[in-house]
Amino acid sequence: MRRRVVFNNRFLPYFLLAPQVAITIIFFFWPAGQAIYQSVLRQDPFGLRTKFVYLENFQAVLSDPLYIEAIQVTVIFSVSVTIFVMVVALLFAVMADRQIRGAQAYKTLLLWPYALAPAVAAVLWMFIFHPSIGVIGKALNNSGLPWDYHLNSVQAFVLVVIASSWKQIAHNFLFFLAGLQSVPIAVVEAALIDGASAWKLFRSILFPLISPTTFYLLTVNLVFAFFDTFGVIHALTRGGPGRSTTTLMYKAYMDGYVNLNLGESAAQSVILIIIVSVIVWAQFRYMEGKVHYT
Amino acid sequence: MKRTTLFVLILLAVLFVACAPAPTPAPTAAPPTAAPKPTEAPKPAATQPPAPTTAPPQPTAAPKPTEAPKPTEAPKPTAVPPTATAVPVIPPGRVVVEFWHGLTKPLGDILEGVAADFNKSQDKYYVNANFKGAYPDTMNAAIAAFRAGKAPHIVQMFEVGTATMMAAKGAIKPVYELAKETGVNIDPKMYIPAVAGYYSLDGNMISMPLNSSTTIMYWNKDAFKKAGLDPEKPPKTWAELRTMAKQIVDSKASTCGFTTSWLTWAQFENFSAIHNVPLATKANGMLGMDAELKINSDLHIRHMQNLVDMQKEGSFKYGGRDAAPDALFPSGECAIIHASSGSRARYTTDSKFAWGAAMLPYYDDVPTAPKNSIIGGASLWVMTAPGRTVDEYKALGEFFRYISQPEQDAKWHQSTGYLPITIGGFDRTKAAGFYDKNPGADVPYMQLTRTQPTENSMGLRLGDMPAIRIVIYEEMEKAFQGQQTVKQALDNVVKRGNELLRAFEKLYK
Predict the structure, then answer these.
(1) How do the domains of chain A map onto residue ranges?
(2) Interface confidence (ipTM) of the complex
């Protein structure tokens, strides 16, 4: 079945590939190489004194209890965001997939949050939940429920999870909806004729049929939670209170950009590269087999 | 095969995001999301057939590709380079020097106005002042530029970056050397001792003081009146502050009695100076990089315990890090606040009640208190780069001489709200009747010059000070939440802070 394209000129394919390869090298491999190089050096910020220290930076990072703490925070955070996003998005998609009045407007409105930068989203959430100036935050405090994410680790964590998820839900919703709409109507009708309940229809027909979409979104969401939530955390909590919202990404930023410890920050980045490569590889390796394609 | 392609694609996207060792905090600078383009996404589903175990093709599971691209096209982030701003026309024939600063509007405009005035005052030199982001961003921009051999001539650096800059010997040119080489006279004695000392090494000025502030106390006179307190008598001691804050809350004059901005700067750095206790050994790091933190002393523990106890009885509120609690005062929520002297302008415009400014309180049973407080803010550093000319250094010397004149200092102080940093600047301002029209505006100066600085109140020079401040926030936040005692918190601060100091020291060995 595979179609082979044959080029008459031997150099044409390389020429056509060149822009993509150039971009890949300049924007992916070069910075990655820099990070790896920096991770084995001890260097002052200005680059005046440089010393090759082998894997000392990695040793320092991995033996740091605060780094282990950041790993825990990141795992709980990523799993929470992923589950929350996918459950809510799937629910919305199933609702929007039915014959309802104004479905188009409803779908469009649900997509709006995706157009916002994470940090902007975070500021919007701050306006709502700030304990003194936020609409809901203030109301909670006035009604006797102490709400202060500056000082309550659990509240801060929940707020960051929700703010991060919010804009990602729009993206997931779109994919789930598209997935649901491409399920053959014949299959659905056959199930209905057989007397399947709404739940049964979803559980046995729709959900398995959209599992490739689900699988893809799972990967994307995990990666999103790992790497793209920096803006939310920075704008809302700056990793606090305590270290309750300091994820691996935020710690790498703090150590590198604020504390100017380039070697250890680079070592953390390299570890992040490895972690996320493993996640993506494992998902493709093991999860794909369990996805239904019938 | 397609599966592998997708895998590689995702991996590359991830690599791209992961490798940037220092993402900028600007919201727009986030790299494009790690997700593959939506148009490609459906592929794994649609092209699943090649997978060995699966049965017939399953085209239906793919999201409609036509729907996908549109919405995802929108958020493509674009990092706008700061250079895109309008560049003023530089008169020909002038020696141009670059000046990178970290002051946001309106202060940044005033600073650029100073440069413009200098440019107008003579016809040989031109100072090109540009905003490069907040202090940490400006610092990183200057570091990156230096590494590329294109450092600006002058960079404005916040006070906690002083140790890093002083240690960067080949990257900076000390101001006293510049003065000597260019024959410009910049006398350290014209500055307030607590200002000149902060930026001097062995009595020689290393950087050029500019915008300085200190922490003072503001109180809400209306709330004091409502609580039955004398609105003209702010607390002088911590005991008085606690009683008054409690009375304010108990009488429901306001919901919060006392809060503090800059917990680290106000309640540790300035607190130590005022009580003449060391923040760190080696004269707070001024005498050497091998300094160790001393902030788990009995007095520090007592002070933090006092805040925790006040929090329990409802008279103190922790309002977040850095300047975040600033908003709690003009809103009327907290009746007393310790905040930067620079917050004065904001309180003047935002507060709808009568308020006053006073010096920070102290524990009156500590015999060494009260001493002068210390400064915060930023100073100007001369950076080196390949190919600097004598004329360029002359331009810098001339610019520094210009801004160090008392009349310039007085003008800067009155228009920005920063401290007058020269004694002449204060005298002029006073003679002009500025403090009669703006009562309390001289409080920061008086507090800063209350005594001659001791080795505990000269300032501090600790490597990684921004990181140490964050450690203090983290550990104290845990103490305020009741997750650990004050002693545990401060012991942890000392332990973690010392590790940072040793790591910093190691960089320069």
Answers:
(1) 61-293
(2) 0.81
B218 strand-pairing partners: B337, B357
CA–CA dist B468, B320 (Å, integer): 16
**Coil, helix or strand at residue B376:** strand
Q: Do the chains contact at A45 and B164, CB–CB below 8 Å?
A: yes
Q: How far apart are CA B161 and CA A12, in angstroms?
A: 54
| Contacts across the A-B interface (CB distance below 8 Å) | 243
Give the model confidence (pLDDT) of B45-82 as tens digits: 333 333 333 333 333 333 333 333 333 333 333 344 44
CB within 8 Å: A252 and B21: yes
Here the tokens at position A128 are 């709502």
Instruction: For residue A9, give how far its alpha carbon lies from the nearest alpha carbon of chain B (Å).
Output: 24
The whole-angstrom distance between residue B419's C-alpha and the CA centroid of its chain comes to 16
Q: List the CATH code of the domain at A61-293.
A: 1.10.3720.10
CA B40 vs. chain centroid, Å, equals: 45
Question: Can you tell me the distance from the alpha carbon of B504 to that of B163, in angstroms, rounded to the nearest whole number?
Answer: 10
* Model confidence pLDDT, tens digit, residues A85-106: 999 999 989 888 877 777 788 8
- Beta-strand relationship, B376-383 and B154-158: antiparallel
Give me the residue label for tokens 């400064």.
B375
- Is residue B362 within 8 Å of residue B370, measured between CB atoms? yes
Cα distance between residue B45 and residue A211, in whole Å: 9
Chain B residues inside the 8 Å CB shell of A49: 507-508
- Record: contact A46-B17, CB cut-off 8 A: no
Give the sign of the dihedral formed by CA B455, CA B460, CA B464, CA B469.
positive
Q: Show the beta-strand stretches assigned E in chain A.
A: 41-43, 50-52
Half-sphere exposure in the Cβ direction for A130 (13 Å, CA): 16
Please write the tens of the pLDDT for every residue from A246-256.
999 999 999 99
